[in-house]
Amino acid sequence: MNLPKIIPIFPLSNFIIFPKTTVPLNIFETRYIDMVNDSMKTNKYIGMIQPKISKNQDNEELPTLHRIGCLGKITSFKETEDGRYLIDLKGIIRFQINKEIKTNKKYREFDVSFDNYLHDLNSEKEELKFSDLKIIFKDLRNLFEKRGFIINWKALEKQSLDETINALAIASPFSLEEKQILLEATDLNIRKTKIAEILSTYTYDQFNNNTLQ
Fold first, then answer.
1. What does the pLDDT look like over 62-116, one tens digit per residue?
2. Residue spans per domain, the chain
3. Residue 102 in contact with residue 88, Cβ under 8 Å?
4. Measured at the alpha carbon of residue 131, what is the angle toward residues 139 and 169, in degrees to the nearest 5?
5. How far is 65 from 53, CA to CA, in rounded Å?
């Protein structure tokens, strides 16, 4: 696979895309309309990354970004009557930012490295069993239900394990920082452990409340 050295970046707060997962995006800002247009004309790649939380975030035109994001490829494209773009973006491989590239474009571009994450491209399934994750899935299910999230668990169990864990990490009611930790976890085993650690920080009452509603 020919990976681009310089990629356009879509900084979106509290939004994570993992390799081997697909997410829908509603594009309406002019600069990101331009970004999608340019991407569609070339390799269809867009880098997704989270901005860091800042006290002056509302006043920052160019927010500071996390160093680790995920390269996505546009797999579906539709233009609405009011000029928005509805796209599906499939996660391909994580990247690390090296430096920002100065351009005259309305959106930002960065020089990136994929060297630490080439294993994201492997098609081999990780050797973890669902039986190893029963406690994690149980706690996740309880947390999701307490927060009003609806998940089709039977459908998830038909997917590969890495797809399932990554999908749950994306959909989880975790914080921005917690999702970033999961994204930066080197492999699936570490991500599984991190999910368990994050869940352990939630109070017992948050997802084991037996009070009659």
1. 789 999 999 999 999 999 999 999 999 999 999 999 999 999 999 999 999 999 9
2. 6-121, 130-207
3. no
4. 45
5. 9
Closest CA to 73 of 134, 153, 7, 146: 7
**CATH code matching the domain that covers 6-121, chosen among 3.30.1360.120, 2.30.130.40, 2.40.50.90, 3.40.720.10:** 2.30.130.40
Contacts of 139 by beta carbon, 8 Å cutoff, 6+ apart: 196, 199, 207
Q: pTM here? A: 0.77
Whether 31 and 88 have beta carbons less than 8 Å apart is answered as: no
pLDDT tens, position by position, 139-188:
777 777 777 766 666 666 666 767 777 777 777 778 888 889 989 988 87
The CA-CA-CA angle for residues 168, 118, 5, to 5°, reads: 110
Answer for the pair 185, 23: CB distance below 8 angstroms, yes or no: no
Token pair in block for residue 206? 């948050």
Q: Tell me how far apart the alpha carbons of residues 195 and 201 are, in angstroms, rounded to a whole number.
A: 10
Q: What angle, rounded to 10 degrees, do the helices at 188-201 and 134-146 form?
A: 50
Rounding to the nearest 10 degrees, give the CA dihedral for residues 27, 30, 31, 36: 50
DSSP-based three-state secondary structure for 152: coil
CA 51-7-78 angle, to 5 degrees, is: 85
- For tokens 């996660």, the residue is 91
Q: What letter would DSSP give residue 121?
A: G
